[in-house]
Prior knowledge:
This protein is mainly alpha-helical. It is built from seven helices and no strands. The longest helix has 37 residues, at 28-64.
Amino acid sequence: MTEDHSPVAQAPDSVKEKTKRTIYDASSGEIFGKNFLAGVAHALGQILVYLLFVAGVFTLAARFFLPVIQPYLDIYLNSMESLQLMQSYFPGESSPSQFEERSPSESTQQFSPQQLDQAQQMLQQLQQNQN
């Protein structure tokens, strides 16, 4: 005769009974628990793969596109610094309601020619410092 050498055949009777159970023998709680655990594991796996994909896309974008747009970012950052510097010379004049009410020509008319010259000199100094 042939002997069965599988782990189930060599296990004690209590283990054999547990391994012979089918889906029809399981309670609804057991089925729900196993499926819930499998769903959570599947969702976490998908999130991990998505995060790896996004990290890869950002790495490639930073490596290839950042050198192209870096000069524009520098200009933007310098403009923001100069605007903040100008706002420090003229406190209280940067409220959003004042910008909404004024036309572009009116906003420059309130500055004296000396103040405009100072602003131009500051911008020129910032440009020279970068070069």
